[in-house]
Write a structure and sequence with these properties.
Number of strands: 22
Low-confidence stretches: none
Distance between the termini: 85 Å
CATH topology of the largest domain: Beta-Lactamase
Shape: rod-shaped
Number of domains: 4
Mean pLDDT: 83
Largest sheet: 6 strands, antiparallel
CATH architecture of the largest domain: 2-Layer Sandwich
CATH superfamily of the largest domain: PAS domain
Radius of gyration: 71 Å
Bound molecules: adenosine-5'-diphosphate
Oligomer: single chain
Structural class: alpha+beta
């Protein structure tokens, strides 16, 4: 992927560079062609100039013949003409067979024919005049070189004009003119700083030239045939560029500048793309991390927009409700995981939410339905979903399946109940032995009274008067003792019987009364005096009678056991119920059990309420932990403090029922 992208970039770069080179080259070429065109136009203009000049020459020379001159008068006129026309070297009037009738030389230079004589040029003159005769008009001869005395020379050309008289050829006018002068005159008004002009022959041989020596590296050339009758003269112009310039003109400079700008932009773009790619990679990583996190989460996540349409769910949520994400997203209300029987309630909740009321921060409990129809409890924590602009776009919910938590709670509740039952059974064992001891007395008394009554009946006739009263008394005692035995058995039965917890409104007195028979059972065995002090006018309490009785019984039993050691002589257990002073709004009742026993060592105090902590060989260590659980269930507290001068006071509080 990366290699491919790099490849693409290099192709793009190569293409751009090629394009730019081509553009610069084209701009250069365009400029060159413009230059060439200008040169061609120059040459064309110069050639037409030249033609006009030659035409004027012909006319001015023809003018010499106007007044039928004599050779002498002609030569005066010719000399005048030569003064005006600097390019003329010599004018001759010749006869039909080319004999010179008269001639005149230019006053501006020494006679050019001085050295070689005029005959040297006879052939060129003959050629020119031959042409003129054939054409019956002005004609030119080929150019030729005339060496001069001073070692230099001039290129000259002959112009021959045929003269006619009454339709007959009467002779010729021959004009010799210097090509250099023609060129100089032609270019008089032009300054040739970076070019040369020259006359060449048809084959390219250069005849005369004007202009500075060649200096540029790039030469542009244009040439054109002047097309004079009989002569093959070509005007050629060369122009060159000075030192090669970096930016020959604005166009190329512009194109080059733009190319650089383009390359720069390309480089910046490349850099930007690299940065973008990095950001993209980072973003993809962050996204992958977030997704992995969401996917591994056990908490279900769900987002809904303001209309209640589901916009997002994570895999944990889908698994919880057993519905695929694509079937949940975009689903409107009622949601497919709402149990049909609760739809109305949930819709109402939704309406409250839409009205802008915030849900509780610590979440609320609800019931969802799995696709297979099973309902399960969930804890939903909902918070507003704020978008990048800071507006609320919907609601985000974290959903926890709390069915497992519920199951554990249920188990602990039942196990606690079972524990309580077990503790009670343990107490029953203890009580059974006390019971046998305790029932012995009334039963022995019953049998004693019964035997006494039988004896009395046996001796009946002798003690008839005494009999009635004694038997009545014995029978009363039997009844009393039987009732006492029955009560003892009933109290044990009441205690053991397992009932469903029920909250009743009770007088504190009745609670104490209920446990007293059992407490007395043990107290008698351990020689403990039991004192009960109940304040007058106490309010009622709402509680489960069995539970609180159990607490009282446990504490009383612990207190009596603490007074078991033989060195404790005056064993006294004080059971007291009073109103807790202070709080007016909510009244509390305090039940306290004070003993004069061994007290509690500091090391033992720390662990007192831990289940299974005991200091007794036959103890279970469950009593106090259960007592605390029960008391706290009603919102009360179980505490203990040392008793003066010795022993311990255990006390617990219960809320009083508010008086009407
Ligand atoms: P158990 O009675 O089965 O030992 P408890 O939880 O009722 O279990 O009591 C735990 C321990 O607390 C007792 O073993 C005893 O050492 C101590 N304890 C409880 N009540 C008193 C008390 N009134 N005086 C001294 N020690 C006490």
């Amino acid at each position: 992927m990366v290699a491919r992208r790099r490849h693409l970039w290099s192709v793009l770069l190569a293409l751009v560079v090629a394009l730019l080179t081509l553009l610069i080259w084209l701009a250069g070429r365009f400029e060159a062609s413009q230059f060439q065109e200008r040169l061609e136009r120059d040459v064309t203009a110069s050639v037409s100039d030249l033609r006009a000049t030659f035409l004027r020459h012909v006319q001015s020379v023809q003018a010499l013949q106007v007044n039928d001159p004599t050779p002498n008068s002609w030569s005066v006129e010719a000399a005048l003409l030569l003064r005006e026309q600097r390019e003329f070297v010599r004018i001759e009037w010749r006869t039909v067979d080319l004999q010179v009738l008269s001639h005149a030389d230019t006053p501006f230079r020494a006679s050019v024919f001085e050295r070689l004589g005029r005959d040297g040029a006879a052939s060129e003159v003959a050629q020119a005049c031959g042409n003129a005769r054939r054409l019956s008009g002005p004609a030119y001869g080929t150019s030729y070189y005339l060496p001069l005395r001073d070692g230099l020379g001039v290129d000259v050309m002959e112009l021959c004009l045929p003269l006619s008289k009454s339709g007959q050829l009467a002779g010729y006018l021959v004009v010799t003119f210097a090509l250099q002068q023609v060129l100089d005159n032609l270019l008089e008004r032009k300054t040739l700083t970076n070019g040369q002009a020259s006359f060449t022959e048809g084959d390219g041989t250069r005849l005369v030239m004007r202009g500075p020596p060649r200096s540029g590296s790039r030469v542009f050339t244009a040439q054109q045939l002047i097309d004079l009758p009989g002569a093959n003269l070509v005007l050629r112009m060369d122009q060159w560029r000075g030192a090669p310039e970096l930016f020959p003109n604005v166009l190329t400079a512009l194109v080059t500048g733009m190319s650089f700008a383009l390359l720069l932009v390309l480089a910046l773009l490349g850099k930007d793309t690299r940065r973008r790619l990095k950001v993209e990679r980072d973003l993809a990583e962050a996204l992958a991390f977030r997704k992995a996190m969401e996917d591994s989460l056990l908490t279900g996540l769900r987002a809904r927009d303001m209309q209640g349409l589901t916009t997002y769910v994570n895999p944990a949520f889908c698994q919880m409700v057993g519905i695929r994400a694509d079937r949940l997203i975009g689903h409107s209300l009622p949601a497919p995981y709402w149990p049909p029987e609760s739809i109305d309630e949930y819709q109402q909740r939704q309406a409250i939410r839409l009205a802008g009321k915030l849900p509780p921060r610590d979440g609320f409990e609800s019931v969802f339905m799995h696709q297979d129809g099973t309902r399960f409890p969930v804890l939903i924590i909902e918070a507003p979903l704020i978008d990048a602009q800071g507006r609320q776009a919907g609601w985000m919910s974290a959903v926890l399946d709390i069915s497992e938590q519920r199951r554990v709670e249920e188990i602990s509740r039942t196990s606690q109940e079972r524990l309580q039952a077990t503790a009670r059974l343990a107490t029953v064992g203890e009580m059974a032995s006390l019971l046998s001891h305790e029932l012995n007395q009334p039963l022995a008394a019953i049998s004693g009274y019964a035997a006494g009554s039988l004896n009395l009946l046996h001796d009946a006739p002798q003690h008839a008067t005494l009999l009635g009263a004694d038997i009545t008394l014995a029978m009363q005692r039997i009844a009393e003792q039987a009732e006492r035995a029955g009560k003892v058995i009933k109290s044990v039965h009441d205690f053991v019987r397992r009932r469903d917890p029920e909250h009743e409104v009770l007088a504190p007195q009745s609670l104490v009364d209920a446990i007293l028979p059992l407490v007395n059972l043990q107290a008698r065995k351990l020689s403990v005096r039991v004192q009960v002090q109940i304040q007058d006018g106490l309010p009622l309490v709402r509680c489960d009678r069995t539970m609180v009785e159990q607490v009282l019984l446990n504490l009383a039993r612990n207190a009596m056991q603490a007074m078991e050691p033989p060195q404790i002589l005056d064993r006294l257990l004080v059971i007291r119920v009073r109103r807790v002073p202070g709080d007016e709004l909510r009244q509390w009742l305090e039940f306290s059990l004070a003993d004069v026993g061994v007290g509690i060592l500091p090391a033992v105090q720390q662990q007192l309420f831990q289940p299974f902590f005991t200091t007794r060989a036959e103890g279970m260590g469950l009593g106090l932990s259960l007592c605390r659980t029960v008391v706290e269930q009603y919102g009360g507290a179980l505490s203990f403090a040392p008793n003066r001068p010795m022993g311990t006071v255990f006390a617990f509080t219960l809320p009083a029922v508010a008086m009407a």
